[in-house]
Amino acid sequence: MIDYDEMERVLAEEEQKLALEEAERKRALDPEAGNGSGAGPGDDPDDGNNDDIMGGRKGTQDEWAGNTYEIQLSVIEGVRSKLNLKMESARADYDAVEGLKKQAYTDLLGTLIGFLIHTGGYPAIFRTWLYGGNAMTFVSGLLLGVLWLPATAIFFRKLVVEFANYRIRCSKRRYSRYIEKNNIRTFEREKEEALEKIHLVKANLEKLDTLQKRLEKKGTLSESENETVLRLGMLHFRESRYLPVKITTAEFFHYLFEDQ
User: Fold this and answer.
1) CA end-to-end span of the chain, whole Å?
2) Which residues, 6+ apart, have CB-to-CB distance to 149 below 8 Å?
3) CB–CB of 115/155 below 8 Å?
4) Average pLDDT in the 68-74 region?
5) Cβ(203)–Cβ(227) under 8 Å?
6) Phi, psi (5° rounding) for residue 161?
7) If you average pLDDT over residues 49-68, what whole number do you get?
8) Containing H/E element for 52?
9) Residue 191 buriedness (CB in 10 A; 0-12 / 13-18 / 19+)
10) Is the dihedral of CA 96, 101, 105, 108 positive or negative?
11) Are 91 and 36 in contact (CB under 8 A)?
């Protein structure tokens, strides 16, 4: 089984390493950053000018502090990008529920219309054969009717099952003993799970904002704060315990009477 926590940790470390390399590259390309001592190309650092030496040390310290700020800010932005992607995914899941509900209704309506056409079509055709056809046509119609009756029963059963599943999935009961016992994924449960994801991501983004403000105020974050930033980006959602269960007609009656 994939260890998502370990994978997220490794990816976060890689991002931090890349951010450090990028900061070093920028420093190498910046002449002022590369010459923090303030000495010219021909100056001798050992000419006894202690002020220049001390100035060089101060410049290096300031430069390191600046690089630390840039690296930590880069890591924060990387974590924010991850969380924003998770937020988009959670919102897409929430918005998709209504579309799934409409599609389920359309499928049920299509099955109902198909059943009505099936049940009304054969009798109409057979009536034409009965009054306008010959004996051979009449016998053929009767033989076809032998096949039509079991087909009608199967079609009717399919219609009942479609209706039962749609009815349960549309349940808005706050608690249903039958639904919870069988872990049935209703449209309401799907919405709740998507909202839970949105709230989790939002909470992590708010914590990340707090840490970024602290970084901007102090200029650097502590080791524990850096670890907190990385952990915020390792957010992954728990697996849903609700399943797309296809119930039978008999189970539908259990649902109707078990929650009474």
Assistant:
1) 42
2) none
3) yes
4) 88
5) no
6) -65, -45
7) 47
8) helix 50-132
9) middle
10) positive
11) no
Q: Contact, 9 vs 229, CB < 8 A?
A: no
Residue 45 three-state SS: coil
Residues 6+ apart with CB under 8 A from 98: none
Residue that has been written with the tokens 């399919």 in this structure = 158
User: What is the enclosing helix (H) or strand (E) of 243?
Assistant: none
Using DSSP's 3-state secondary structure scheme, residue 184 falls into strand
In angstroms, the CA 219 to CA 129 distance is 91
Tokens of 23: 């900061």
Distance CA 95, CA 86 (A): 14
In angstroms, what CA-CA distances link 61 with 36, 55, 67, 212? 9, 10, 10, 22
Residue type present at position 231: R
Q: Which amino acid is at 139?
A: V
> How distant is the alpha carbon of residue 214 from its chain centre?
30
Tell me the pLDDT tens digit for each residue of 94-122.
999 999 999 999 999 999 998 888 887 77
CA distance 122 to 142: 11
Best CA proximity match to 201, nearest among 239, 237, 240 = 237
Query: Model pTM?
Result: 0.65
Rounded Cα–Cα distance for residues 93 and 252 (Å): 27
